[in-house]
Write a structure and sequence with these properties.
The protein has helices at about 1-30, 35-60, 70-85, 90-110, 115-135, 145-150, 165-180, 185-200, 205-230, 245-250, 265-285, 290-305; strands at about 140, 155-160, 160, 235. The chain is mostly helical and about 325 residues long.
Length: about 325
């Protein structure tokens, strides 16, 4: 009975929190409830969601990926630098950069038996240097005509809905299908819940882990491309403030930091919660740097609620 109550709490609490926060912010500023503002808020959420969606898979297997903000920044630099030279082919080139970074983090962690936070932190340093090398340590502007030609899928709108929302919803559906309808998704949950049992059944656990990290790097790369398209430039520091909010929205959405429990739609709800909290803090005049403190408290509180302490007998 206790387990069933915990499951219901993890499922419905994020949605309840989101509704309460929207009502509170809306009561503070009635214009918040307008359709245009709601669409704008959702569009602004999508880059954070795209980055967090890949990390969700890594956390569900019991790992962590600390390289995603550096990967997003690097891919924005690749896109900005090579779009004038290669045109539309700069987009898959940037995504490949994310794929390689994610694969490297997973390979180092699994094959060398290094804790994931150390492996991905090391990859983050390498990726950060690569971003500075591609951009020559400066922000690179994407010419407006190139943006209109090759990046309209990430900017503008379709049927009155910002294209960022369409992109986010598309990846939400695809990743949800991968996690819920494929053997890979079932193995991700299984590894997070009982890794030894999965290994005993003859499954190559390392291969699944590497795939999860690779998807995380891929989604970080997509997030970096969308960010660069929206801002009209790439920079090696473009996503510097996104790591803590990304992890926060995963855990706030109900994905257990100990693995085994979670979903992509929960991360989407968590991203909306983080965005509404950010907007609320902006309304009352909280600085961007102070907001990181608030996200830190939110992360601690969310972990306290969602963490399965039965899996971690000793806290180190």
């Amino acid at each position: 009975m206790k387990m069933e109550s915990r499951t219901r709490l993890q499922t419905w609490l994020p949605l309840i929190v989101l509704v309460v926060l929207v009502l509170l912010v809306g009561l503070y500023d009635r214009t918040f409830f307008s359709a245009g503002n709601m669409l704008e808020v959702t569009a602004d959420t999508m880059t954070l969601f795209l980055m967090a969606s890949g990390v969700t898979l890594v956390i569900m297997i019991g790992g962590i990926d600390l390289s995603v903000q550096a990967v997003a920044s690097m891919t924005s630099c690749i896109l900005a630098v090579y779009l004038p030279r290669f045109g539309i082919f700069a987009i898959p080139l940037a995504v490949i950069g994310g794929v390689i970074a994610g694969f490297a983090g997973g390979y180092v962690s699994t094959r060398l038996r290094i804790p994931s936070f150390i492996a991905t932190l090391a990859v983050s340093g390498v990726v950060l240097s690569a971003g500075n090398w591609f951009s020559e340590t400066k922000s690179v502007v994407i010419p407006g005509e190139l943006s209109q030609t090759y990046l309209t899928w990430a900017v503008g709108d379709f049927l009155g809905v910002p294209n960022e929302i369409w992109v986010g919803v598309a990846f939400l559906l695809v990743l949800s299908a991968v996690l819920g309808l494929t053997p890979f998704g079932r193995l991700v949950r299984g590894i997070g819940a009982q890794e030894r049992a999965v290994m005993a059944s003859g499954i190559d656990v390392d291969r699944i882990k590497i795939a999860a990290y690779t998807l995380s790097g891929t989604m970080a790369g997509v997030a970096g491309i969308v960010m660069a398209a929206r801002l009209g430039s790439g920079s090696p520091t473009l996503a510097n403030e996104f790591l803590l909010p990304a992890i926060a929205c995963i855990v706030v959405g109900g994905t257990a930091i100990t693995g085994g429990v979670g979903s992509i739609w929960r991360t989407f709800v968590g991203a909306l919660i983080v965005q509404v909290v950010r907007i609320g803090m902006t309304f009352i005049g909280v600085s961007v740097f102070a907001q990181q403190i608030v996200f830190g408290f939110i992360l601690v509180a969310a972990v306290a609620v969602t963490m399965d302490r039965a899996k971690v007998l000793v806290i180190k």
